[in-house]
Amino acid sequence: MLPVARLTASSRSRRVPAGRPGRPRRMNRAGAALLAGALALGLAACAPDPVSQSYLEGENLGYIAGEWAVESIPESERGEPVVWAGTTETGEELSSDDVAGDVVVVNFWYAACAPCRAEAGDLEQVWQDFKDEGVSFVGVNTFDQADQARAFAEKWGVTYPSVIDATRGDVKLAFAAATPIQATPVTLVLDTQGRVAARVIGPIKGPSILSTLVRETLEESA
């Protein structure tokens, strides 16, 4: 039960005799602090994503912090190939057909997300390490317009394309049908058939884990 309910249950309203106007009572500092904390917990309980201990991270415009997780999905348990299409920050059309047959890394991000900024260099490093080995990288920007995405790429040295998905969200919906997209950032690794083979919920925390997931997925088709 939330503290709001306990506060309400333990507080009794004072009866005001007939004919006498009631005077508003001042809440002492302890009561105000308790109420503020209770309301904060109540708001946190209404967070839209079911990640434990979720909370809104300041300037991050809806970044939901939750449990960090890495998951590798056995080949026999993967779903159907994800079919997606969109327009990149440079105005080019990009779809699952364009990267068919590659191992594909898909990163969901937006410019004001602090963990997205922190992992940008690591993603670029993994892309540079694998781009000549049948691996494609695709960003999916879930919030910004093209000019913001281009500015982000220039500032953080990102050279792979990003689909601008803020208006309709078609790309995110396509992937959400195959795997939960609970938070931002999320990074997926697709096998050569376009199926979700692995995912990292939250920032990739350095290049090594993602590199291992990409390498393992590449070796499946060797």
Automatic annotation (TrEMBL):
Transmembrane segments: none annotated. Residues 12-27 have a biased composition (Basic residues). Residues 41-222 form the Thioredoxin domain. Keywords: Cytochrome c-type biogenesis, Disulfide bond, Isomerase, Redox-active center, Signal-anchor, Transmembrane. The keyword Transmembrane applies. It is found in: Cell envelope. GO terms for cellular component: cell envelope. One of its GO terms (molecular function) is oxidoreductase activity. Residues 1-27 are annotated as: Disordered. GO terms for biological process: cytochrome complex assembly. Pfam families: AhpC-TSA (PF00578). The keyword Disulfide bond applies. InterPro entries: AhpC/TSA, Thioredoxin-like_sf, Thioredoxin_domain, Thioredoxin_ResA/DsbE_sf. This is Thiol-disulfide isomerase.
